[in-house]
Amino acid sequence: MRRGLTISGINVLAILLMAFTFAVWPLSAPVMADSSQVIDDSTTPEILTDTLSELSSDSAVVSASDIMSDKPAQNDSVFRTDRLNALVLMILFSIVILVYTKWAREGKRLFIRKISGLDEVEEAVGRATEMGKPVLFIPGIQEIDEIETIAGISILGRVARMTASYDTPLLVPVRYPMVLAAGQEVVEQAYIEAGNPDSYNRDIVRYVAGEQFAFTATVNGMMMRERPATNIYMGAFFAESLLLAETGNAAGSIQIAGTAQPAQLPFFVAACDYTLMGEELYAASAYLSHEPLLLGGLKGQDWMKILLIILIVIGIILASFGFGDWYFSLFESM
Amino acid sequence: MKTTVPIIIAFLSGFVMILAFFVSPESVTFGNFELEPEVLSWVTIVGGFTLLLGVVSIVRVNYNAVKRRNDGWVYKLATLISVFAMAIPAVIPNGLSPLFGTGPGSIYDWLFNYLDAPMMSTMFAMLAFYIASAAFRAFRTRNTEATLLLVTAVLVMLWRIPMGEIMLKSIHESIPGLINTYIMNGANMAVQRGIIIGAALGAAAMSLRIMLGIERTYMGK
Description:
The structure holds two protein chains of two kinds. By secondary structure, chain A is α/β, with parallel strands linked by helices. Chain A has two domains: 2-110 and 292-329, no CATH class; 116-289, 3-Layer(aba) Sandwich (Rossmann fold), CATH 3.40.50. Chain A has helices at 2-28, 44-56, 64-67, 84-105, 116-131, 147-166, 177-193, 212-226, 240-250, 265-271, 279-289, 292-320, 325-329, and strands at residues 135-138, 170-174, 205-207, 230-234, 254-259, 274-277. Chain A has a six-stranded parallel beta sheet with strand order 3-2-1-4-5-6, with helices on both faces. Among the domains of chain B are: 1-68; 138-212, no CATH class. The mean pLDDT of chain B is 90. Chain B is built from eight helices and two strands; from the N terminus they run H-E-E-H-H-H-H-H-H-H. Chain B has helices at residues 4-22, 35-67, 73-91, 107-125, 127-138, 144-160, 162-171, 175-211; strands spanning 29-30, 33-34. In chain B, a hairpin with a 2-residue loop joins strand 1 (29-30) and strand 2 (33-34). The longest helix of chain B is centred in the C-terminal third of the chain and has 37 residues, at 175-211. Chain B is an all-alpha fold. At the A-B interface, helix 1, helix 4, helix 6, helix 7 and helix 8 of A face helix 1, helix 2, helix 4, helix 5 and helix 8 of B.
């Protein structure tokens, strides 16, 4: 009850702050005098070229800002009116998630489809317990400011709670010191909440190397020496994905992977027993927690996906009949 | 308090990024203070401080393993020696000797160019062998789906190499074009876009849950 009240308060404050900013800011902020004060057209092709090359590279991380043009509006507004469509979508998305969260809090039953990879996490930890071998968890190889790493850290909390309950050894090698700090905090909290704080050791989460392939070599060595029964990879992975997953396979571990990097998914599918694809990674912490509030957010996400599918189908039909230009312009930078 | 303060910080940080995305850069610049780059530079500064945590962690874990003669302690000793061999000459000012610092001709530079970089390249090159072993398992014709995957993979691999393309063209001129149109730009592209759209929605939803304080699992709650 207390938590529900706190969340309601924060939600209301957040929405009020957003509304206030977008309503009042134009009145108080300095207005652009002319277009020469903003990034001019000559810089735009360079930005687009950089963005395209970034998107085509193996290490590309697709975000909304990558996809959208960086060309500012050619008017006097303090708003980027060329991004109005994104603002509308964001507000709609926020409303849908808040509505479903409210329904979940009120006790409305929400159906969430089964994700077999996540159902297997508990079984895989149980297997490690029976074998008396450790569980290896890697929260990706990116910094803590990447949402995939945060998703990985969230799942780590759930896995750590299971290993703490069963008193199973856990190994968490990380590539960045900030991920180390966050990981240590999450794992320690999980061991306390599982009622087994004595088993917590701050070296469960350990910094092994800052270089991508030095990290991979260290983890591969760890897999071959310590032979963990279960390997869980959750987060952003790049060229090292197959090096890790194949070594884990050779070591005879059960492997569960999850990433939002489309280029790495085939490697994980080929080498791991279960793979979470794209959005399933972000749903994992909510799914494993079984908390109605978090599951409400997932339902809101599904609703938005249905809306996008409908919009895409309308676009296909309009394009097929040759009169969809006005419709497509709604989704482009204005 | 322990939960509320991080939630407020998370909300404000996210809000600054949203604001910077929707508002023109001039509107969030106050003199020399540019809001978005400023906040992003804080991340770098905090990261610099936490580097010390990383060094402490790597030294403690490896030192304990060497002291207890754990399995593979020799490798851990090599790690410890490497950490200090790279770090110590790099932090000594190169005014004392050209061997110090990180400039050309320094110990750090030599270790980086002749040990670190070749070892990274070796690890990356090994990927080819791992791809071969993974492909061997993935392309075994166990059922209809696996057979379909095998046929598709063989066609795409042939299309990707000049010799294969000539071979395919010798069967029929249009085969490479059909592979490009229907497999790569059709099925492959559609599935990739589906995954990207789903992942983007998932990332946006998770960001909102974090900003609004609904998702607290990243704090271990």
